[in-house]
Design goal:
CATH topology of the largest domain: Arc Repressor Mutant, subunit A
CATH architecture of the largest domain: Orthogonal Bundle
Low-confidence stretches: none
Shape: elongated
CATH class of the largest domain: Mainly Alpha
Radius of gyration: 22 Å
Number of helices: 7
Mean pLDDT: 88
Distance between the termini: 41 Å
Order of helices and strands: HHHHEHHEEH
């Protein structure tokens, strides 16, 4: 923390032209408030979502479900990704747990749909890619 505080002091000195202990303390308090507002539970929940997307199979499944805009049967999803049934089941379970897809039983079949959270994330990702 001491090294970070010293760097903050140098930064504030550059920005303010002169830095006093009160300036450093005030800024540390402001930064602490920002960190506290985020909350550990929110960070954990968001990391779960990002972790769920950090796998090619799971990411592909989310992209396909978002593009479909409707429910897809697990058998349809199995045709899209090159994984075992067990691997597919595990991937879909992780996505359900992260709140990116919903599932429901329809007779003998299990169907999956992208959630609004998944649609929003894919939309943001689509908008973040530079057109070169």
């Amino acid at each position: 923390m001491a090294q970070g505080t010293e760097r903050l002091r140098r930064y504030l000195d550059d920005e303010l032209g002169e830095c006093r202990n009160e300036d450093v303390e005030r800024r540390l308090d402001e930064l602490g408030t920002l960190e506290a507002a985020l909350g550990a539970a929110q960070v954990d929940a968001e990391l779960d979502v990002l972790s769920a997307l950090a796998n090619e199979t799971r990411y592909t499944l989310v992209r396909v479900l978002v593009a479909a805009g409707e429910e897809l049967c697990v058998c349809e999803l199995n045709a899209v990704v090159d994984v075992s049934e067990s691997g597919l089941s595990h991937a879909l379970s992780a996505l359900v747990e992260a709140g990116l897809v919903t599932d429901r039983k329809d007779g003998r079949w299990k169907k999956y749909r992208a959630t609004n959270r998944a649609v929003a994330l894919v939309t943001v990702l689509d908008g973040s890619v530079d057109d070169e």
